[in-house]
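Box 3.1. Reading complex inputs
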Amino acid sequence: MDLALGDIANLVGGQLNGDAGIPISGAAIIRDANAGDITLADKAQLANQLADCRAAAVLVPPDVTPDGLPFVTVSNVHASFAKIVEHFRRDAGNQPYGVSAAAHISQSAKLGRDVVVYPTATIGDDVHIGEGSIIHPGVHILPGSRIGHNVTLFPNVVLYENTVIGNRVIIHAGAVIGAYGFGYKTVEGRHKLSAQLGYVTVGDDVEIGAGTTIDRGTYGATSIGEGTKIDNLVMIAHNCRIGRHNLLCSQVGIAGSSTTGDYVVMAGQVGLRDHIEIGDRAILGAKSGVMNSVPSDSVYLGYPATADREQMQKQAALAKLPEMRRQFKALQKQVAALAEKLNDAA
Amino acid sequence: MDLALGDIANLVGGQLNGDAGIPISGAAIIRDANAGDITLADKAQLANQLADCRAAAVLVPPDVTPDGLPFVTVSNVHASFAKIVEHFRRDAGNQPYGVSAAAHISQSAKLGRDVVVYPTATIGDDVHIGEGSIIHPGVHILPGSRIGHNVTLFPNVVLYENTVIGNRVIIHAGAVIGAYGFGYKTVEGRHKLSAQLGYVTVGDDVEIGAGTTIDRGTYGATSIGEGTKIDNLVMIAHNCRIGRHNLLCSQVGIAGSSTTGDYVVMAGQVGLRDHIEIGDRAILGAKSGVMNSVPSDSVYLGYPATADREQMQKQAALAKLPEMRRQFKALQKQVAALAEKLNDAA
Amino acid sequence: MDLALGDIANLVGGQLNGDAGIPISGAAIIRDANAGDITLADKAQLANQLADCRAAAVLVPPDVTPDGLPFVTVSNVHASFAKIVEHFRRDAGNQPYGVSAAAHISQSAKLGRDVVVYPTATIGDDVHIGEGSIIHPGVHILPGSRIGHNVTLFPNVVLYENTVIGNRVIIHAGAVIGAYGFGYKTVEGRHKLSAQLGYVTVGDDVEIGAGTTIDRGTYGATSIGEGTKIDNLVMIAHNCRIGRHNLLCSQVGIAGSSTTGDYVVMAGQVGLRDHIEIGDRAILGAKSGVMNSVPSDSVYLGYPATADREQMQKQAALAKLPEMRRQFKALQKQVAALAEKLNDAA
């Protein structure tokens, strides 16, 4: 399965700079490359790292000219490198697969053309699944759900009743869409669950990470806007309305009924309280605890979260506080001495 | 499936104020309501929002009189609105279901009357399940577990060996009860797992959210008290003893052997260290990092968490710190000038 | 199933101090022990708690001599107590089990001797599983994965394509290994997923907690070093390289391409940004937000995380800030008065 470096240049339509006969036995990033591998450097700043790298050759964009290593120049480094990696990857034998007889599919469910359903998946009454969608093993789709076309549900995804999934959506293993919202009313010392009549709607081209949970609305929808990408272990509570093209990183938690605009970015472990609004294109820094609505086009940080400039001033002042405290005590003494001196003088 | 507004008033036993013939085609909260929907306003402060709402009518309690919108007055707005939503919800065809032949049930397991078991669930040796409980697809109950009556285990819930579940408990999809505790002893550079002989007990009327994990005790029980409600993606470690009627919000983490009293509330993303005690009715604010025991009837915030008043004073002082720092430098200069002046005068 | 205390002393090879005929009906930790139980006290400081404990006897190490309670002295308290607990535990009837006919195993998969596969597990094309490994129900292993010997995969674990698992690894229920990394490039307002050609490698003797997610590398491996233990609901992003014998507590999140040395410890809810390096034996305190690389043998705390001494000084200064603020205002007044006095004098 080895290739000569010249073959690799041909494979990606790149320009070879070095010996076309060098044998290449694999492809890996700089950190991981072994002798015989080809690696990639997508910017000139990686030159230092390349010098220490054991790779036999490197794939580069036109503006990078590596020192002392054969290289292949291409216009799109990442797409070309992916092509090379795919060549070396052992074929896992993913064969086309139809609808398994060992899946459990309600007679009232409707499956489009070329739908794939693996063994042990269960599909409830009145579920519709669009053309070309793939339902992995252990996926459970409860009654009344609607799935678009070319959707992939990885193993053990659970969709509760009446979930609505758009087209080209990817949901990773173990994600749970549509569980009950965490809403209670305390009556005579006992917490009574609120109505759980709602559901979840997920727009086209959304991706949802492994183990993420999105709860149903109380009466209507909790909704995720088109093109939004959600990482692993994120929690989105009941009645939230997430806008389009958001990026929500891992372990973010959003409490009930909060909303976001379009192109919002939340870094890892951010927490939002309930019933607040995050404006378009707002960016929330890692681990922020957001207690109030955030205006559009702003960057918020910290806990409690504030505008980034304010937060950085606070943090800078805090870092100098121990020294300032010592200086303050010295100043107190100096003033006391001055006061005494002035008294003596009077 | 449309109803006239008069029919809706009859359905909920409410008093109509407006044209009984107005056609109503759906029900949604104010934010989401479309033309033709009925909405609800449970307090007078929502008047502004109602003015901008596209709903054709609104359901209200006796003390709310909306302006310019037909309304139906009822004593319990939420219960009545739920009834209306249910009317409009398409019937998902949830039919009564027995014990599936495609479930895998040990011959030594005992199932009560009217137990439902869906395909692909597995039930281990010597498991007992009480009357009327529902075991969804992909649920795996390991040997020796005891489940009360009228329990619902949603898809892909896992109960490890000897788990004890009370009556009327609801456990949401993907929750894992009884995995090994994270306890190690390091011997000659290798971490050795502690004994894993314990189990988990869950009291009556407990609800556990999607993806939540509760680890078994070392020798005995990790326990969750009666009536406690736990949100999604919460982590409760080995040997913890959670009291009754607690509310633990999403992504809370409680380290080993910590305990809580009754009616404790933890907001989202709170973290507790190991071996501490949280008193009855204590409230822990969102994202608090709790490093010490917390007395009953107190409110704790922040990281490290302190009593709320103390924390708010700290935060207020911190917010003003950058300004205070500037003033402090000015004061230093002023004092230096005074000292010089006094020296000159002497 | 009751035992006399003398029989218990024999069972664990311990020295009895008290009446050999005392009937013992169970074993529990001090907090949970009932009348008739034997308990354990592994250090002298527990004497107070023992005084309030209802246990009938106690197991102790040689350097502990409890007051007023019959006791059995042994050299290894925990191993001996485990033996006693096991005696009293009802046998859950875990029978030896082969490969279930109700599992779904590709014809090209290879299973070693004594492998156990429970019903509803699915094993993809070209998967290899080593001798003595146990595959619980609802586990889904996608094509091309390699599993070592004596591995346990608890129910509903998902391994994506080409995952590599070492020997004696334990993965708890619901963990997801190898989902797509959260890497996007935004082109004309749409987030395009990066290449997902990599996989995950897990070293020998690693343990992974319930609901934990580890994403695949972009082109190559995300790797977990030998002997590392990972708690529940931890997130490890794409391209990370975790060293050997780390301890990563619950709800830790590590962003893409970050690396750790050996024997690193992260307490609960720690967050690491992407592309940083944590040195050998570094300790990161609970809830730390780590924004920069951390040197070996250091302890870091806080958010943003700093060396522990620095952080504790900051926190101590912050705790005194409200008082310092009052003193500062008083000092400002005093200085103003002095200045006036000096002016008057001039």
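In summary: The longest strand of chain B covers residues 37-40.
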